[in-house]
Amino acid sequence: MVVRIEAMGAGAIWSRWRLWAAGCDFCGYVIHDVRMRFRDHVSRNLSPAVNHWIDLSPPVGWMSCCTDISVVTDHSRGAAVFRDSNNRVCCVWIERFAATDPSLAEAQMLVCAAQVAVRNRFLCVSFFCDNTEVVSTFLEADRQNRNLNLDGAAMMFRNCTKGFQSFKLTSIGREANFMAHNAAKWAKFNSVVGEIDLRVMDPEVFVDHKEWYPEPG
């Protein structure tokens, strides 16, 4: 597989390698950071192409939940965005994890999202995740090639779903999952966890098909 470095955020990665080349003491930190960003990029490439106009609004009586993560060197933050059949965002939940492996962090966020849904008594929930490896493991779609590191989270997720009348778990492309991605990114910049007051979030976070960038300064 050929990976174009510009797709990984060339500015951020190149600046780190320049520091390393200059002989900075923290070259181990730099190498770890670049590897982490590369793993995250590759995990996104595993997601199949999807219809850009995918409808995330659930049917009447259901909630939809999109999840995603934002990984930094020593931890990750995940977001779960719940919306109702009127496409109204009802809840944004943020969680912090020690995991920096993208697939493990995505798996932990899905478990957290299911727990939040049970606590809020959402009876019918459609979950969307842009990591196909996680979705496949959770649905036991390919037991021979599953990621064993995700088995614990998969079991916890299945236990949580016993609290639902019905649920679905679907793989979604990043290009249709920016709202959850943006929420996780916003949480990383603001160092917050728990249920977020929607009024304090940048309105541009709540877009499905466009990445959010914080205002400079």
TrEMBL record:
Pfam families: RVT_3
InterPro entries, sorted: RNase_H-like_EbsB-rel (IPR052929), RNaseH_domain (IPR002156), RNaseH_sf (IPR036397)
Coiled coil: none
Species the sequence originates in: Cannabis sativa (Hemp)
Single Gene Ontology MF annotation: RNA-DNA hybrid ribonuclease activity
Transmembrane segments: none
Ranges where the RNase H type-1 domain occurs: 72-187
Name this protein carries in UniProt: RNase H type-1 domain-containing protein
